[in-house]
Amino acid sequence: MAIVCIAGFVFTGCQGKTPGSSSPERLTLNFWEMYGPTCDFDKITDEYNTAHPEVRVIDTYFPSHAELLQRLQVSAAAGSGEKPDIIFYDCIYPTVTDSIYTLVDLRDYFAKESSFKYEDFYPVFQRFGTAPDGRVISLHTWANCLVLFYNKSIFRAKGLDPDTPPKNWQEMYSYARKIQDNRAGIWGFLGNFVLDNSHEGFGWEWQSQTVSAGGKIWDDTYTHPAFNSSAAVEALTFYTDAFKEGISTISPPEQAFINGLTGMQIAGSWMQNTFSSALGDDLGVGVWPGKNNPAPNVGGEHFMIVKSDETRQQASWEFVKYWFTPKVHLRVARAEGKTPTYKPLEQDSEYAAWLASNDTMKVIAESMNSATNRAVRPDYPTFTEIVFKHIEPVFYGADANAAIQAAFAEVESTMGNR
Amino acid sequence: MQKAKAAYKARTNAIRRADNISGYLFITPSVVLFVLFVAIPFVYSFILSLSKAIPGGTMAMVEFGGLGQFKKALNSREFWNSLRATAEFSIPVVFFHVALGLLLAVILNWKIPFRSALRTVFFVPYVVSMVVVAMIWRFLLSPGIGLVNVFLHLFGFDRNTGWLTNPKYTMAAVIMVAVWKWVGYHMVIYLAALQNIPGTLYEAADIEGAGAGQKFFRITFPLLAPTTWFLVIISVINTFQAFDQIFLMTKGGPMYKTDVIVFYIYRNAFTYYDMPYASAVSWLLFVVIFVVTYIQNKLSVTDWNY
To answer: Burial code of B166-181, b = ≥16 C-beta within 10 A, e = fewer?
Structure first.
């Protein structure tokens, strides 16, 4: 028995063929992605494999940013074994990924295409996909942003027009005061970051509020922070003043919006299916209000191809293109509540009909008119960590101005001019 | 005769050799696993703790850095905060584990109705996965609708108390969950120890006119000293290594109030990818646990006889 155990370990560790290798029969590619079975990524990959017998794409799903980043780091550090060929990752990570695995300049592949043109991608989304040296290292595939979901039934009960969501901070406060019902346990509104315990969930929201209040986060070259402003302070006090007034809270009930315990919820557009299942026709969607004008941050995910040999890169490119075919693209967009970033898709009749009929998609489209982008830096996650560390105490009573200044000073000293 | 003796010896040696080979073969898988998953990482983590990352390289690219990581840890406010959080978590949890475990064991050692059912009820949390425990308690402690807040609201408490989001209450909440999860284990160990106390001692005490309190403090508690010390040591080691509960319930927040040392190591290793620093902190934790356990062993009473 002991010999069998030892032999088992030895043979397990000495597999002759690892995924990602090639055989004369079929090229095997590794696809590491973040959408998973809920968006049919596994099924769509299987369908691609069936239609393309010369290639076998192995889909591996990672449910969180941290897990995928960790796997990328570990696989690069190991230097051998399983490596990704195609990566599908959040829009803030292309330059981070490029610092781990060199990514292919996709312009070389677009140059060979006759109908699939880089110029047909919305520029506002592609900023994340452009490396500082000008290479196009990723393609923004589906776009999302924070929107304002609201409960029409609660609006009606409180005498508010269910078809007219608030359009600015002042109206948000006014609506929230009417909705707040301490006896029934219903909150006026809840922020997104209280749904998401990650620092990026908060950072994304605060940055947008700062820009909507007339401020900036970074300078135009993303080399120096620029958020030591009254706008950044106002972006914080928008929430803390609401906490003090009792129309919002840092400690919401679990699943508050689904359970009808808040009238308004700032959340990602990808929550539309979840909220729609819970609230049905009582679900309202509006552009997320800014101080005067909205400034939602663009979100979404990018396809990237890891540099290897030309055969693998070309096969990976064909796989990436498959995701931009209208039927496949729409299938995922419907599942995740996201919009296309590639203009020709909007001309597909089925896609256009869905976009025109879906309230959340209409709101995203309207939001993109004033959308902003987060910093395009490989050390972007460090920025979020530093900011959250200084700003979190503000939600528990610390001075907002001092917190912003401290965060600015540390970001400048740690990340400035690099 | 000599030949017979020699043949006998040769046969015995052959049998012993065969037995030895069988024995070594049987322990080989365990040894291999130990070497691969304990010994090698143990040594490698020490090597890593003396290293530093090469700027611009991947996480595997390190060079010798001497004691730099240890100095960084000892000069880090976050490191000392994590030790503070660990002590703040560990001391009350150990106390309540032992005190409540003993109290429950004494009560459930009496002949009371539904004794077996009650023992089971208190032991069940121990066998339930911490993932399940953490998720259930997150809902129970939820502001507004959590059963804990609904119950306390009946007595005038704020229904929207954020047990896991308010820095004033978070540590108390995680301590309470840790005590609830593990007290059954301590109760069972104490129950077994109580069975081993001779009944004649209590009979003699009764004859001498001793009261319940005197019997407990003069007989029961002293004779449970070895068990108590064992449970204290186990509880300290377990609480110093607390991770899953913190990861699932608070992620070290709010404001790093529950950022215990193992979660701090995890953050540095797998969020910031600073493996050399995380390894150094791991070794500092090892030293702390070693010293604490050594002191406990020196102070512990291992034998108490009447």
So the answer is: bbebbbebbbbbbbbb
Please give the structure tokens belonging to residue B49. Answer: 């703790």
- Here the tokens at position B235 are 């509880």
What is the per-residue pLDDT for A192?
Answer: 84
User: Given pLDDT bands bounded at 50, 70 and 90, which one contains residue A14?
Assistant: very low
What CA–CA distance (Å, rounded) separates A240 from A202? 14
CA of B81 vs chain A CAs: smallest distance (Å): 14
**Residue B185 in contact with residue B94, Cβ under 8 Å?**
no
Residue with the two structure tokens 């001391």: B91
| pLDDT tens profile B14-73 | 888 888 888 899 999 999 999 999 999 999 999 999 998 877 666 667 888 899 999 999
How far apart are the C-alpha atoms of A123 and A139, rounded to whole Å?
A: 11
Residues B296, B229: contact at Cβ < 8 Å?
Answer: yes
pLDDT score at B303: 57
- The answer to whether residues B221 and B212 touch, using CB atoms and an 8 Å cutoff, is no
Contact check, Cβ <8 Å, B142/A254: yes
Q: Is the pLDDT of residue B76 over 70?
A: yes
Give the single-character DSSP code of B36.
I
Cβ of B59 and A66 within 8 Å? no
CA distances from B179 to A299, A366, A413, B106, B166 (A): 42, 52, 43, 18, 20
The whole-angstrom distance between residue A393's C-alpha and the CA centroid of its chain comes to 25
Chain B residue with Cα closest to A67? B270
Q: Compute the distance between CA of residue A85 and CA of residue A251 in angstroms, rounded to an integer.
A: 42
Q: Give the whole-angstrom CA distance, residue A403 versus residue A382.
A: 17
User: Using a CB-CB distance cutoff of 8 angstroms, which residues of chain B are in contact with residue A385?
Assistant: 272
| Chain A interface mutation, best of B30, B58, B168, highest count of A Cβ atoms under 10 Å | B58
Q: Among residues A106, A102, A94, A101, which one has the least CA distance to residue A65?
A: A94
Q: Which residue has the higher pLDDT, A174 or B306?
A: A174
Contact present, A155 and A262 (Cβ < 8 Å): no
What pLDDT digit, counting tens, does each position of B96-127 carry? 999 999 999 999 998 899 999 999 999 999 99
B143 CB neighbours in chain A (<8 A) are 249, 251-253
Total number of residues shown for chain B: 306
Sheet bearing A146-151, strands edge to edge: A187-190, A262-268, A146-151, A283-287
**Lookup: tokens for B266:** 């995890």
- Beta pairing class for A86-90 and A27-33: parallel
Among A191-205, B21-35, B58-72, B261-275, the minimum mean pLDDT is found in: A191-205
pTM: 0.81
